[in-house]
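Hi U.,

Before I forget, here's the chain from the pilot set. I'm dumping it here mostly so it's searchable later in email.
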Amino acid sequence: MLVVLVVIAILMSLLMGALKNARETAKTVECMARLRSFHQWQHLYRVDNDMWFVVNRTWGPGLEGPDIPNPESPQHYDTFVNALKTYMGE
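Structure:
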C-alpha cells in the first residue's frame, strides 16, 4: 500500500512540472497573439490615416505645457487606445 502511494506521489510531482510548463507556454502564446493583434490594429490605423502613427497623449501628469496636453483633460481624451478601438472591434 505504501509503495502505491509513493508511486502516485512521484507521478503527481512529474505531472505538476509538466502542467507548470504547459501554463507558461500558454501564457507565451497568448501574449504573442495579443502583440500580433495590436500590430495589426496599428497597421490598419496607419493605412486609414496616410501612414501616420497613432498620437500618444498619455505622457503623464506634470509634463503638460504649451505643446504637451494634459492627458486628464476631457478635450485630449483621444489616447492611443481610444484611437485603435475602431479596429479592435469595441
